[in-house]
Amino acid sequence: MRTKYVTFYVVALLLVQTALLGYSARSHSPSWDETGHLAAGISHLKLGKFSLYSVNPPLVRTLAALPVVAIYDPPMDWDYFREDPKLRGELFMGRRMVDLNGEAIFQHIFVARLAVIPICLIGGLVCFFWSRDLFGDLSGCLALTIWTFSPNVLAYGSVISPDMGSTVGLIGASYLFWHWVRDPRIVSSIGLAGAIAFAVLSKSVWVILFPLFLLIWGGLIISSRWGSGDWQDQFKSVAGWRPGLKLAGAFALSLLLVNGFYGFEGSFRRLGDFEFISSAFAKAPSLPSGSGAGIAVDENSVGIISPHATIGNRFSSTLLARVPVPLPANMVLGTDMQVAEFERGRYDEGWQAYLLGEWKQGGWWYYYVVGLFFKVPIATWLLILFGALSAWSWKASASQWAAVLCLWVPAIFFFWMVSGATGMNRHIRYALPVMPVLIIWASAFLRLDGEEGSSQASDRRVWGAVACCAWLVGVTLFYTPHYLSYFNIAAGGPKNGYKILCDSNIDWGQDLIELKAWLSQNQEARENLRLAYFGSFDPVVVGVEYRLPELLYPPVKKEQLESLPEGWYVISTNCLAGHLAPLPDGSGALVFNYYGAPVFEYFEGLEPIDRIGYSMNVYHVE
């Protein structure tokens, strides 16, 4: 009977999350990266090439593009396609795609988002099974509840980006590795291979799972030989050459799947044959200090590397030069480009990091700690705290301790890596893969089965969990569908979010549909609109006519503010924070304007009369 109720609860939560994700997907215009992802996914399917958007592996965007190509087959201008994977032409391809499709792009993006929603649902199920296996049915239900109503999960589960795929890939691969540890059969090895391949094809950083799983396996073998009792009995099955051969086979199969997805394009190329641009791989700094942006932004180059970039290969004169790389060439080159972009934030003034109202070259090691604190609901943090306190007295078996290693070791190592990459302190979504681990640990709060103590204490835990979940559900539903802009009460809510973080953490260009709805109700504003829009394409191509606001370089004088032209101003919160990203100007050009100074920051001194989905403020100057 209890199993029936648990099953009903799980199915109900999955349906609720599907509805929330679908509503968010329908309500939001394409976010900054999505047009590029969709254009790249279409190129994979139509051209069979993977050089476009090579900084991220192609799995998620290919899944997103499948229904769009099958249903609409949108017109594309492949003259903007470039073969060289070192070029960043996906944004220009995406903008050109919007030019050709107009407002139909909203429907295309919606359908593409629906195709990737199942990834988020799978993530919820993995959290449920992890928690149930460790702490019991109630804990499994608690973990799924937190996942279902987490604003960050809902935000990135309803957009076309690799972040949710990366998150689910890590927690899924770790879960199946734990199952392999408990029962290293061939079936378990095949499942593990598929999970690792999914993770690597979602985010190339997960190649670190190979050495991490080997490290955990080695530690368990040592414990089986030098431990006693339960430890020896539990892990002796993974010791020896047969389990090692099965694990090696799983790794080999996962690499085969990864290379097969790319069509073995450039697979097993020798390391010395690559041309790299990052200082980590190219020997010299990719861009000297003061040389400007690493990617040119003119229509002829379409994202070509700056002539200042240094191209080379630090391995060419070493013994490693002859070693074949067991990965597709575009994945290797894309990883190199990603590293170069992380390095860029250490010297390029246009790529400074922003935290708590301060801009800094090179960022902070604690950026993601602070960011997650303000982006995760307080109710979730309380459950994480209560879960950690409950787990402190947990008398775990050897198998459960193995689960702790499989759960925490990859997550901690990853968080250490991403925190150390301070050159790209822009997106809290990069740390999203640690969220399932925190959620599973929070579920330990309802670890009631087999625990000594009074039923009264157990009841208090249940009611405490119910109260926190009710708070979480209420907060999430209140801010639906504005999950991308969500900040908790410690930050003062979403309206103050831009004073703490910026970029995709609050405004990713997602509220253009809401702006169009607002303009339809305010005809006067529609006729005299000045807009500073943080997005991947010019709003004019989807029917929003506007001009740029006045460009006022700091410091701004009072008389300059008093002489602003009369009219309606809609300003991205990123512009209020002083973000220097290029902005469209209403001409429909593929090349955006870069000003090199926070020319719209002066609006922070004015009082908004309205807000567009927490990502844009509305001002009326009379």
Brief summary:
The protein has 622 residues and is mainly alpha-helical. It is 52% helix and 4% strand.
Structure description:
With 622 residues, the chain is mainly alpha-helical. 52% of the residues lie in helices and 4% in strands. It has two domains: 14-260 and 366-477, no CATH class; 503-621, no CATH class. The chain has helices spanning 2-27, 34-47, 59-71, 90-101, 104-135, 137-148, 151-157, 162-182, 186-202, 209-226, 230-235, 241-261, 279-282, 329-344, 367-375, 378-392, 398-420, 435-442, 455-478, 512-521, 523-527, 558-562, 573-577, and strands at residues 353-355, 358-360, 529-532, 567-572, 610-612, 616-621. It has a four-stranded mixed β-sheet. A two-stranded antiparallel sheet has the order 1-2. A hairpin with a 3-residue loop joins strand 5 (610-612) and strand 6 (616-621). Mean pLDDT is 89; it is low at 286-308.
Features:
four-stranded mixed beta sheet, 2 domains, 52% helix, 23 helices, 622 residues, two-stranded antiparallel ribbon, mainly alpha, 6 strands, globular
Blueprint of the fold:
Blueprint (H helix, E strand, L loop, with lengths): L1 H26 L6 H14 L11 H13 L18 H12 L2 H32 L1 H12 L2 H7 L4 H21 L3 H17 L6 H18 L3 H6 L5 H21 L17 H4 L46 H16 L8 E3 L2 E3 L6 H9 L2 H15 L5 H23 L14 H8 L12 H24 L33 H10 L1 H5 L1 E4 L25 H5 L4 E6 H5 L32 E3 L3 E6 L1
Parallel strand pairs: 3-4
Antiparallel strand pairs: 1-2, 4-6, 5-6
Helix pairs in contact: 1-5, 1-6, 2-3, 2-4, 3-5, 5-6, 5-8, 5-18, 6-18, 8-9, 8-17, 9-12, 10-17, 16-18, 16-19
Keywords: Cell membrane, Glycosyltransferase, Membrane, Transferase, Transmembrane, Transmembrane helix
Protein name: Glycosyl transferase family protein
Subcellular location: Cell membrane
